[in-house]
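Quick start: what a row looks like.
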Amino acid sequence: MKKFLFLTIPLLFASLSVKAQWQIGLQAGYDYDVYTINTGYQYDFNYVPQGGLTIAVPFQRQFTDWLGLRFDLAYVQKNTRMYRSSIYKEMFTNSKNSYISLPVMANFSFGGTYVRGFANVGGYIGYWTAGKVNGVQPNIDLITDVEDYVGFNEKYVFSKKRDNRLDAGLAGGIGLSVQTKGRIGFNIEGRVYYGLTSTKNNYMRVNYPAYHTTFAIQAGVFFLLDKVNLNRNCNCE
């Protein structure tokens, strides 16, 4: 993560000093999170992908016809579902996890004046802000020694020893944008966030790291803050 900050922060400041074209937008869409964890001896724990919501405010600095710098302020849900098999098959836990992420990516575009394809390549840093869990768990009556199952629905309580709330990894996407003759444009993008930081700290004798990989499809609108220049051969100055 330190290397990522070392490379991206100077780029952000450099973009402020270069005369180029700014744009701001709003995007929203659906994401699909794959939670990868080695369950080890917990052989009956099964994790399956879950869907969620993503909303982002993207900023882009266009330097040339084909090259720009893109950074988003994004809300990303990374939801998971765990269910038990074997004798505990009635048990399950749904987790709704909210993350604030800052992807920073190089933007490469290609195509015509009004319709263009693009690719974003870079990384992201983020923070696990909140969680909510619901499901079914065993409940043992200590008097009758009878095991039953009860439902729960509650806020997730973070543990400094157990949970790593800092999130970082690689980010990228491909999409299509449509520019009108004015300052307004529209785009659609498929994106992936590939987590490189485990959600779990090494707090037990046997540690099993866990990672999120989140796929998203999002659409939105963007607004050119500078004077519109549809001459694709210019240097955007």
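That is the whole record. The first strand starts at residue 21 and ends at 37. Helices lie at 2-17.
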